[in-house]
């Protein structure tokens, strides 16, 4: 048995219990002192901005095999099926970069590159409205084997989007259609509901195919 010879946080100055401001550990705040802090963090109602101001995260259980669901999501063209408004995917002259239209915006092109890791079953969609040189809108997804976390067959999908500063102001106004009045960031307050809707779409499609013995990834996508 190996015992660590270096104390936790041993690199910090010799402060009482090596306390960084805002750090709560049992060494400097026992359970009796910490319980009121935790209880104060629990709310019956949470301000929308507190939960979704900087991050938008949605998650769900899907009754479909995790490896099959990961493969489906790893195809950029799957966005044609389960997203609310991305349509007409075509590949571009740049390998791995796809162009389509986001029907939330008038004549708005959206560019997407998908980065997938089969070992971790992560799928990241790097996107941008109007131009494909700087893909700053990043949608982070992970498929988890539900047998591990829920002790039942199926998948858990975790999906997070971070509020990049460009959501607040279009960095490439010259690339926008001249008559478009909206910007993707105008919809940020609705991202949580919009992503919930799209995750429900993903769940409905995958579960229908799984229940009817159909491949989760259709042949046309391959």
What's the CATH architecture name? Answer: 2-Layer Sandwich
Q: And the CATH topology?
A: Alpha-D-Glucose-1,6-Bisphosphate, Chain A, domain 4
The tally of structural domains comes to 1
Low-pLDDT windows of residues: none
User: CATH top level?
Assistant: Alpha Beta
In round numbers, the mean pLDDT is 92
Determine the N-to-C terminus distance: 50 Å
CATH superfamily: START domain
Number of helices: 6
Write down how many β-strands occur, each being a DSSP E stretch of 2 or more residues. 7
User: If strands are numbered along the chain, what order do they take across the biggest sheet?
Assistant: 1-7-6-5-4-3-2
Main beta sheet strand tally, sense and closure: 7 strands, antiparallel
Helix residue percentage: 10-25%
Radius of gyration: 22 Å
What's the arrangement of secondary structure elements?
Elements: H1 31-41, H2 48-52, E1 55-62, H3 66-74, H4 79-82, E2 86-91, E3 97-102, E4 108-117, E5 122-129, E6 137-145, H5 146-149, E7 155-162, H6 191-211
Antiparallel strand pairs: 1-7, 2-3, 3-4, 4-5, 5-6, 6-7
Please tag this protein with its features.
single chain; about 220 residues; alpha+beta; about 25% helix
Describe what this molecule looks like in 3D.
The chain is of the alpha+beta class and 222 residues long. The protein has a single domain (48-221), classed as START domain (Alpha-D-Glucose-1,6-Bisphosphate, Chain A, domain 4, 2-Layer Sandwich), CATH 3.30.530. Helices cover 24% and strands 25% of the residues. It is built from six helices and seven strands. It has helices at 31-41, 48-52, 66-74, 79-82, 146-149, 191-211, and strands at residues 55-62, 86-91, 97-102, 108-117, 122-129, 137-145, 155-162. It has a seven-stranded antiparallel sheet. The longest helix is centred in the last third of the chain and has 21 residues, at 191-211.
């Amino acid at each position: 048995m190996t015992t660590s010879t270096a104390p936790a946080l041993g690199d910090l100055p010799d402060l009482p219990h090596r306390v960084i401001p805002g750090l709560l550990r049992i060494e400097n705040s026992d359970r009796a002192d910490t319980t009121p802090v935790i209880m104060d963090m629990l709310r019956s109602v949470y301000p929308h901005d507190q939960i979704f101001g900087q991050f938008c995260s949605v998650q769900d259980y899907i009754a479909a095999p995790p490896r099959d669901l990961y493969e489906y999501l790893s195809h950029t063209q799957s966005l044609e099926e389960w997203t609310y408004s991305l349509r007409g995917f075509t590949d571009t002259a740049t390998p791995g970069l796809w162009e389509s239209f986001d029907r939330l915006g008038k004549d708005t092109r959206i560019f997407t590159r998908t980065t997938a890791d089969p070992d971790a079953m992560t799928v990241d969609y790097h996107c941008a409205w109007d131009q494909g040189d700087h893909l700053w809108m990043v949608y982070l997804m992970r498929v988890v084997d539900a047998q591990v976390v829920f002790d039942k067959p199926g998948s858990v999908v975790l999906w997070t989007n971070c509020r990049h500063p460009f959501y607040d102001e279009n960095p490439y106004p010259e690339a926008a259609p001249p008559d478009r009045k909206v910007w993707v960031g105008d919809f940020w307050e609705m991202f949580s509901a919009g992503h919930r809707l799209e995750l429900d779409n993903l769940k409905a499609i995958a579960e229908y195919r799984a229940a009817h013995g159909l491949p989760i990834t259709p042949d046309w996508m391959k």
